[in-house]
Fold this sequence. Notes:
With 230 residues, the chain is α/β, with parallel strands linked by helices. The protein has one domain: 3-Layer(aba) Sandwich (Rossmann fold). Helix content is 41%, strand content 13%. It contains 6 helices and 7 strands. The model has no long low-confidence stretch (mean pLDDT 96).
Amino acid sequence: MTELAGKRILVTGGTGALGSRIARQLSEAGAHVVLTGRNGAKLQELGISSELFTLDLALPGAAESLLNTVTSAGQLDGIVIAHGLVAFGPVSELEVGTLSTLVAVNETSAIELIRAAIPALVSAKAAGSDPFIVTISGVITDMPTAGMAAYGASKAGLKAFVSAAQRELRREGIRIVDTRPPHTETGLASRAIAGIAPTMPEGLSPDAVATRIVTAITADEKDVPADAFS
């Protein structure tokens, strides 16, 4: 079992429905949360006792800069990568800018965070911690969906990276947990950067999904597929 009390954990996407709930649950369990998001005012409004960083992880070098700042201030025991964007529409209407933004946010920035965090998490392991990284690739990676090809590709790329990195980093004592929740009522679909969301059945409660992800951290799980959320 991974103990959360006293651990310093970075959570990205802090103002999102999942990121904010995961951060709050970690804080309530005694963790020291380092919270990031693009809107500083909204981060403050959460009222979570934490270190706050306002930045856009889609910008080149932002992920590495964040990790350098965070790790210079103390030991880092874990990361929850909860930021992301979505877009809808047929492939024939996909714009290059939309694709680039999806890949930059959902895939490249997450990969850069993982890569940049390795030295700090190795040091945490040497200090007796149980370092971890959580990714939220989502059910889309196992169920490619028409009208969401670009979004699915950006998430599938992250999952492929994580699958290989898990095998490499376990030798360093770093656990990567990929989680793939089904459609969840986060409101992300209403903030799509392109297209209009299709009609979908009611999704899962973000509170329940956040709780399941935190449980995966404490229970030392390595993979949380969609059916694990039911």
